[in-house]
C-alpha cells in the first residue's frame, strides 16, 4: 500500500514536470492548459457572480497580446470594485483543494491505470491554474490597499474620539 502511494505521487510529479516543460512550445502549452484555463476562469466567473462583480463574458481561447505575451483566458466584469476585487482576483486559489481531491480519488485505481492517470492530469491542470495572473494580483492588491487604508482610518477615528478600550 505504501509503495502504491509513492507510485501515485511519483506519477503526479512526472506529469507536473512534463506539463511545465511544455511551456517552451507556447501554443502546445496553451492547448494543453485548456482544462486548467477553463477552471481558472470559471473560478473568477463564480466569485464575480457571488460577490456582485457581474461577469459579462469569458474566453478560454488563447491569443497573443500586442506586447507579445500570450493571454490564455479572461473574464470581463461589469462591476468589479475595490471591495469585491480581492475575492474575485484570488478565487483560483480554491482550485488547490480540488486538485488535492482529484489526486486523492486517483488513488482508487492502480497508479498507472488510465482513469488514475486522467484524474492526475486534471489535478495537475488545477494545481497549475491556481496561481493568479499579473492582472489578478493587480486587482487584489488594489482592493486590499483600499480596504487596509479604510481600516486604518477607521481605527484612527475610533481611537481619536475616545472609544479605545482602556
Question: Which properties best describe this structure?
Answer:
transmembrane; two-stranded antiparallel sheet; mainly alpha; single chain; Peptidase M50 domain-containing protein; plasmid; 166 residues
Describe the structure.
The protein is mainly α. It has one domain (2-158). The protein has seven helices and four strands. The chain has helices spanning 2-21, 26-32, 34-50, 82-89, 95-106, 114-128, 134-160; strands spanning 55-59, 63-64, 70-71, 74-77. A two-stranded antiparallel ribbon has the order 1-4. Strand 2 and strand 3 form a beta hairpin. Helix 5 runs antiparallel to helix 6 (114-128). The longest helix is centred in the last third of the chain and has 27 residues, at 134-160. The protein is globular. The relative contact order is 0.15. The model has no long low-confidence stretch (mean pLDDT 87). Keywords: Membrane, Plasmid, Transmembrane, Transmembrane helix. The chain crosses the membrane at residues 42-61, 82-104, 137-158. This is Peptidase M50 domain-containing protein.
Amino acid at each position: 500500500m505504501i509503495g502504491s502511494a509513492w507510485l501515485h505521487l511519483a506519477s503526479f510529479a512526472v506529469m507536473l514536470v512534463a506539463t511545465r516543460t511544455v511551456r517552451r512550445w507556447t501554443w502546445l502549452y496553451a492547448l494543453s492548459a485548456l482544462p486548467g484555463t477553463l477552471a481558472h476562469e470559471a473560478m473568477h466567473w463564480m466569485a464575480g457572480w457571488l460577490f456582485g462583480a457581474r461577469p459579462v463574458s469569458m474566453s478560454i481561447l488563447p491569443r497573443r497580446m500586442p506586447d507579445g505575451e500570450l493571454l490564455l483566458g479572461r473574464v470581463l466584469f461589469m462591476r468589479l470594485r475595490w471591495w469585491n476585487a480581492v475575492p474575485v482576483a484570488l478565487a483560483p486559489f480554491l482550485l488547490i483543494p480540488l486538485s488535492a481531491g482529484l489526486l486523492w480519488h486517483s488513488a482508487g485505481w492502480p497508479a498507472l491505470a488510465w482513469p488514475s492517470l486522467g484524474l492526475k492530469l486534471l489535478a495537475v491542470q488545477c494545481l497549475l491554474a491556481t496561481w493568479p495572473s499579473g492582472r489578478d494580483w493587480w486587482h487584489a492588491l488594489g482592493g486590499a490597499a483600499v480596504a487596509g487604508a479604510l481600516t486604518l482610518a477607521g481605527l484612527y477615528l475610533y481611537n481619536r474620539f475616545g472609544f479605545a478600550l482602556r
